[in-house]
Design goal:
Blueprint (H helix, E strand, L loop, with lengths): L3 E6 L2 E6 H17 L6 H23 L6 H11 L2 H14 L27 H9 L3 H13 L3 H12 L6 H8 L5 H9 L9 H48 L19 H28 L6 H27 L3 E10 L5 E7 L6 H6 L26 E7 L6 E10 L2 H9 L1 E2 L2 E4 L2 E5 L3 E2 L9 E8 L4 E5 L6 E2 L14 E7 L2 E4 H10 L1
Parallel strand pairs: 4-9, 4-12, 5-11, 5-13
Antiparallel strand pairs: 1-2, 3-6, 6-11, 7-10, 8-9, 12-14, 14-15
């Protein structure tokens, strides 16, 4: 096991192996000797030592260790540049007539910081100017215009004031200008310094205000992050409960519930899980990030983050694939019609029958005992939140041949015309005539676990002239082609009364009013 030594560099105590310590000591002595002839030798060497200490700290954090070895020191020296290479480059600059101080200091990768040395308020505009390589006055002009064009610029400026860090160290200021943090970069930084702008009362006031906002802003940010953690955790819980609920009602014929009835049984579980992942992972990532902000936690490991991203992208891909498959099921439409001849009566009563129609499969699924339910009716009252969209409409028209008929026009959609026609045929609509009473079901039913494909039934009741009608108020929402709501003079009445004339359907109360006026 190698011997370790401690060194105080950049106001940080670093543990180094003995050979690493010796190599670093030789390098620092060479740096001090080279810059000894410079007027700013102490400041330059201090900045270099601070940068080396930062790099050592980054290595220890990334590699999760406590001691710097010889490979780490050699890596840092390679990035900073050796004194010998630096001296050779200086000699070449002098021989070519291009002095080092004339070199452009903005060729490296820039980082976004607030430049408080040249700031008028908080250094946001100047920092953006450095980052975008444009003059700060143009950024300030754009910020000023955004304030007068809606006021959003103030909010954006305050957010950037809180979020963008201040360039405090020499390394930060060099990174802000795009200078490499090596020997040449530190030399250029001292030979071409940013001139610190004199600050008046207004600038000092905004500096004080900035420090206050920075402190309170961080506190407010933590408060918001805590709220996001609570609300996001609640959403995650609701998502998990919803997923369990969806698969929990599987045995209760989930296909009878809208919108699940849209999805084909063959890929139902895959699509639901994919959509679940698409919503789950962004909320989970937001909650984890908010936990880090609120409680100063450690960042999520890159492997975990990358894994979550891959899973989310896979969920998006699967969701898009199956959504496209479902959308293709609504490509073509088909319809067919059938006409029933009814027994005419002088007076007809039209109403919605809430009796639930059951197929043989329904009776088995719901375990309905024919003996126990003999002589009874099962009612379905009202529309639930997971019922299919309204799929029945009724028109009342004058019969042209004096006969009373009911035309049933069934329509549906499908991937092909043949499939659409099959979907239209795979539905049941229940209508019954009991003497003068016509009972219409409130909607059609899908047979044989059919999927929802926009199945509809359009009913046309052809009524002979002179027939009187009593229309139940529960049928009004299904009637089309006429304003049936205006015929209820008294909203407490259950029925409105009509008569079929040569001119079409007329409200009896309106006819009585017209005759009384005459």
């Amino acid at each position: 096991m190698k011997k370790t030594l401690n060194i105080n560099i950049g106001n940080s105590i670093i543990h180094l192996e003995e050979d690493a310590y010796e190599t670093l000591t030789v390098y620092l002595n060479e740096v001090k000797h080279h810059f000894a002839k410079n007027a700013d030798d102490f400041e330059i060497v201090t900045d270099i030592e601070n940068r080396i200490a930062e790099m050592f700290g980054e290595l220890l954090t990334q590699q999760q260790k406590q001691v710097i070895d010889i490979q780490d020191v050699q890596s840092v020296i390679a990035q900073m540049g050796s004194v010998k290479d630096f001296e050779n480059s200086e000699e070449q600059d002098e021989m070519s007539g291009n002095p080092q101080q004339a070199m452009p200091p903005h060729d490296g990768i820039k980082k976004l910081f607030r430049d408080t040395d040249q700031a008028m308020i908080a250094g946001v505009c100047v920092g953006l100017g450095h980052y975008l390589n444009i003059e700060a006055r143009w950024v300030r002009l754009a910020a000023l215009l955004s304030i007068f064009m809606g006021g959003s610029g103030i909010l954006i400026y305050l957010i950037m004031w809180i979020v963008i860090p201040k360039a405090e160290s020499k390394s930060d200021k060099m990174a802000m200008r795009g200078e490499e943090a090596n020997l040449r970069g530190f030399m250029n930084s001292h030979q071409n310094p940013l001139v610190k702008q004199s600050r008046g009362f207004l600038a000092e006031f905004f500096e004080f205000l900035g420090n206050f906002i920075n402190g309170t802003g961080k506190a407010a940010l933590k408060l918001v992050a805590t709220a996001i953690v609570i609300f996001g955790s609640f959403l995650l819980l609701m998502l998990i409960i919803s997923l369990a609920g969806v698969f929990g009602v599987w045995d209760a014929d989930v296909y009878s519930y809208f919108p699940f009835s849209i999805i084909n049984e063959a890929y139902f579980s895959k699509m639901i899980l994919a959509v679940f992942v698409v919503f789950l992972i962004p909320i989970l990532a937001l909650v984890l990030f908010s936990i880090r902000v609120a409680f100063n936690g450690k960042p999520i490991h890159k492997t975990v983050s990358f894994g979550l991203l891959v899973i989310w992208l896979a969920g998006v891909a699967v969701s898009v694939f199956y959504i496209a498959k479902v959308s293709a099921e609504f490509k073509e439409s088909a319809e067919f019609a059938q006409v029933k001849e009814l027994v005419p009566h002088q007076t007809l009563v039209l109403s919605v029958d809430k009796t639930r129609f059951f197929t043989k499969e329904d009776s088995l699924n719901y375990k309905i005992d024919p003996i126990k339910y003999k002589g009874r009716r099962i009612l379905k009252d009202g529309r639930g939140p997971m019922d299919q969209p309204r799929n029945m409409n009724l028109r009342l028209e004058k019969s042209e041949n004096g006969k009373m008929t009911l035309s049933e026009n069934y329509s549906a959609m499908g991937k092909t015309f043949e499939m659409a026609l099959k979907n239209a045929q795979n539905i049941h609509y229940d209508f019954q005539q009991r003497d003068s009473v016509l009972n219409f079901s409130s909607g059609l039913q899908l047979l044989k676990k059919a999927n929802y494909r926009a199945q509809e039934v359009q009913l046309v009741l052809n009524i002979p002239v002179g027939t009187h009608l009593k229309i139940n108020r529960n049928l009004r929402e299904y009637l089309t082609g006429h304003n049936y709501w205006d015929c209820y003079a008294d909203d407490s009445k259950e029925f409105s009364e009509w008569v079929m004339t040569e001119n079409g359907l007329e409200c009896l109360s309106e006819r009585i009013d017209d005759h009384s006026d005459e």
